[in-house]
Amino acid sequence: MTDRPQETHQVVVVGAGPAGLLLAAELRLAGVGTVVLERHAKRPDFCRGFNLNARALDLLARRGLDRRFVDEGWQVGHAAFSGLPVTLNLAGTATDHPFSLGIPQTRVEEVLEEHAAKSGADIRRGHAFEGLDQDDDGVTVHVNAGYRIRAEYVVGCDGGRSGVRKSAGIAFPGTASTRFTLLGDVELAEEGALPFGVTGPVFTIPRPGYVRIVTEDREPPADRDEPVTLDRFQAAVDDALGRHVELRAPRWLTRFGNAARQAEEYVKGRVLLAGDAAHIHPPAGAIGVNVALDDAFNLGWKLAATVGGNAPDGLLASYHDERHAVGVDLLASTRAQVVLGEPDDRLAPLIELLTRVANHPGGNRAFTETLTGLDTRYPMDSCQEHPHPWLGRLAPDVPLSTDEGEVTLASLLASGRGVLVDSSEDRAFLAQAESWQDRLTLVGASGLAPSAVLVRPDGHTAWAAHGEPSKQDSADLERALHRWHGAGRHTAPASVTRQRNVER
């Protein structure tokens, strides 16, 4: 393969699913040359999922993308949860989108691909990853279309059987599947022959023009990768129902298990992983696409800063530190939901206890925020005895008044840069951050609960001051600026937006 023609690019993303497409757009937002390799010549005509959760919508809002989806989808005021007879209510949780959004994953990918392409990403369908060679200076990617790409970094967003992960030699420990489930998108020969919802061991979901049927695969073949045929699916459904319901016109037939695995390293040299390439888990809670988007959002700005030469030491490693920890919790919560659904009488007292907790308003909120990732808090340095409640969490989208008009905190992040908002009287924090104005948006504004806040490009709060400027606040800000944005550059004073003379 060494005689193949070679191209040179900054980053290669393998996989044009939600994680890969959002990541490509994030990299292009920072001007990073990005190629996306996708082995499928066209997007599959079946749909894996139908859900964007509140956390994913909050993140997309930080780039002004949420309305593209909200305007098309249907809103449900609760979060998905398996195993307990309770409804997890999103009202009152820490989100600007207190609902789950029903929208086909195929449409999510269409919107993200359009966004990435408009941003300048080079998306190549029908170009499959064949392997990689990594050294200290970069990575050589071999492509089935008869060429190689030399890149500074490669990101595997290529699913649970990731070729990038395997080629990089990244271990994928966890638990193997012990139970298997069949899923089929089919038509019913006789309309109404199968009621929607749960019918014994069969779950039927209505979809436009077809139904999605889910049932247990009681006798999976020795080769778990063996394609599911309509005859096999028909037999499994008939066996589960105890009667024959004729199925036809299959759109998608598949088998999945309850395996839970996580990559040991999300960052190995110049190879990184995101989405299912980094973690697989049972589908309980309908969380998969949402976590993939979360990975990409966390990684994009860090990788862009690294490629651009502005990254402080350890910035790229923080992607592993932050998202691997989230992945551990993800696997635990999805596995717990599977266990709660087991037909085991010994679980009855546990289910009863958890149901009581989840039916309590405080318990319901805690459950909901934990299972949807709304409680995500990344570790931040602070010497304050009582750090601000926003620290480490996604900063809420609060309204602000500036000399240029009314804005919201989320809208200030649309450019992909970090933001420092200062509502203190003398704007001392803005003056302190002037050397970082090439990487930060500096804003003087009123309407902010903390007197000042530093928000990372991914929307998470890196620093917040409680009151008027103090030496401790200033020292903490200096540390946060260096931690997340590297050394400042001595430039001309920043042009900042000053506070508007408006009482709010």
TrEMBL record:
Its cofactor is FAD. Signal peptide: none annotated. It comes from the Bacteria. Residues 494-504 have a biased composition (Polar residues). Keywords: FAD, Flavoprotein, Monooxygenase, Oxidoreductase. Coiled coil: none annotated. InterPro entries: FAD-bd, FAD/NAD-bd_sf, RIFMO-like. Residues 10-331 form the FAD-binding domain. The keyword Flavoprotein applies. Residues 484-504 are annotated as: Disordered. One of its GO terms (molecular function) is monooxygenase activity. PANTHER family: BINDING MONOOXYGENASE, PUTATIVE (JCVI)-RELATED, TRK SYSTEM POTASSIUM UPTAKE PROTEIN. This is FAD-dependent monooxygenase.
